[in-house]
């Protein structure tokens, strides 16, 4: 299956699938989702905003996610993973608190004192650069859903089939370009998959605002 050249190309391809959206709010999950969402917002001629999420990691191995949290929402745990590790949500309370602080820092870095746009009654498109376990996307969708939008769409270039299937229960629509059988990691489906910095995110948001 052909790879995307980069996140910008993937975003342009996704934008064609989303062009009939009616005056949506586009929310990107930083950092990588912002690079995908910028061409979408430009194509739809709507503002681009970020919805900050953080993974809740297993303390001995933080790369292993046991949940996630999104701004405006409560922690969403992978209870199957917690049971497998012999843990409970209370076991990672300290991790959750640290991630809340980092989430708040990033919200301030990306938006300052500017709040999220009103979502109630609006069509909302949540964008990320790919879905592996889907933990942060799930937390984001639940936080958005709590704001009572008219419709919630999750848009991603690529994702693991099982994850995409499970997230169809969280969103009204999931728009995904590729669900490869041999999915192992999001980055393998991009020729260029550079890690983005906060400065990169701010640059993309500034570009979108112009």
From TrEMBL:
Keyword Glycosyltransferase: yes
Keyword set includes Lipid metabolism: no
Single Gene Ontology MF annotation: glycosyltransferase activity
Lineage: superkingdom: Bacteria
Cited SUPFAM superfamilies: PRTase-like
Gene3D superfamilies named in the record: 3.40.50.2020, PRTase-like
Keyword list, A-Z: Glycosyltransferase, Transferase
Coiled coil location: none
Phosphoribosyltransferase domain segment(s): 9-172
InterPro entries according to UniProt: PRTase-like, PRTase_dom
Protein name: Phosphoribosyltransferase
Organism from which the protein derives: Nonomuraea helvata
Taxonomy of the source species: Bacteria, Bacillati, Actinomycetota, Actinomycetes, Streptosporangiales
């Amino acid at each position: 299956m052909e790879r995307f050249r980069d996140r910008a190309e993937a975003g342009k391809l996704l934008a064609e699938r989303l062009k009939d959206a009616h005056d949506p709010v586009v929310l990107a999950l930083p950092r990588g989702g912002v690079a995908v969402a910028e061409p979408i917002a430009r194509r739809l001629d709507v503002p681009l905003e970020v919805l900050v999420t953080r993974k809740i990691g297993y303390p001995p191995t933080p790369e292993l996610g046991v949940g996630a949290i999104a701004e405006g929402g409560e922690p969403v745990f992978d209870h199957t993973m917690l049971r497998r590790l012999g843990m409970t949500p209370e076991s990672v309370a300290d991790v959750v608190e640290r991630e809340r602080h980092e989430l708040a820092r990033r919200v301030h870095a990306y938006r300052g004192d500017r709040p999220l746009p009103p979502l109630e009654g609006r069509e909302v498109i949540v964008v990320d650069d790919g879905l592996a376990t889907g933990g942060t996307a799930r937390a984001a969708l639940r936080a958005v859903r709590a704001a009572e939008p008219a419709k919630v769409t999750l848009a991603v270039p690529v994702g693991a089939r099982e994850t995409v299937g499970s997230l169809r229960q969280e969103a009204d629509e999931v728009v995904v370009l590729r669900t490869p059988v041999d999915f192992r990691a999001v980055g393998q489906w991009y020729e260029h998959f550079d890690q983005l910095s906060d400065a990169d995110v701010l640059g993309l948001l500034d570009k979108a605002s112009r």
